[in-house]
Request: fold
Amino acid sequence: MHREARIANYALAVLSALSLILLSLHLSAPVQAFKACVTYVLNPVAYYGAKGSERFSNVPANVKDLLAADMENRLMREKIKQAQWVETESESLKVENQRLRAALGLKAPQLRSPTWAHVTERDPLHWYRSVMIDAGAGQGLTVNAPVLGTQGGRLVAVGRVVEVRANASIVLLLSDELSSVAAYAASPSTETPRSFEGLLQGQGNARLRMNYLIPDATIEKGDMVYTSPTSATFPPDVLIGTVTQIYPPDQELEWKSVAVAPAADASRLEEVLILKIQSEAAEAPKLSQTAPEPDSAQIPEAAP
Reply:
């Protein structure tokens, strides 16, 4: 027992002397390397302590990320609560709307469900007339279903389904000469609101023509054109385009016309949204149907 104690005392004395010698030496590169080696061999805690401090040096960045994630999580929770309130208020307004419609004897609007599809084919000879999409009877599409596109983050009117196949459909674009839709032109300014209804007809090119406007309609360039509530195909208040030209009045006609630039460029359509009527979705749609022209039948054709 005394022998082991003496050995420990000798080792302590040697290490103490070695430490004093190392402290008295000049801190040159070889001395620093030697000290690091001796320190690592005799006391590796310093080495692992340095590694630990290096790891803990990244803690502030991680904590910052955690705090940012927590703040974002709280904001999302607040938005979810607001969305729940908006949904509750919407349901309340829906019930009130149904009650008022029943009291006034008005027809309830058709319920629609959205379906996205990709444009798969264009006819080079009829570029502004129709496109083919990769959705059809298998996806519940029916003839005369309105087709919308996206422009600047909002939905705009594009056309309607005129032929339904098993897994594909043909969409007649608004720019086609056989296409027409009831629409109204409104001023984007809220100070002087103006709204005039007419019939929007395709011209077979990149421009549309809005006919049957009253002679004293004060329409200006830049006015927005939307689908009318009287449209038999499209839901109301969907953007169609912008007025680009006012045609001079014709003395033989009792109405005026304007040129409209579509909001959605037919040559750049890649994805479209089809609004399916839920009541018709349950029925088996017929294949290769050809749709009538509901909106154009309401107003006589324009004089050449």
Remarks:
- The mean pLDDT is 79.
- The domain at 112-281 is CATH 2.40.10.340 (Thrombin, subunit H).
- The CA atoms of residues 119 and 269 lie 7 Å apart.
- Residues 59-104 form the longest helix (46 residues).
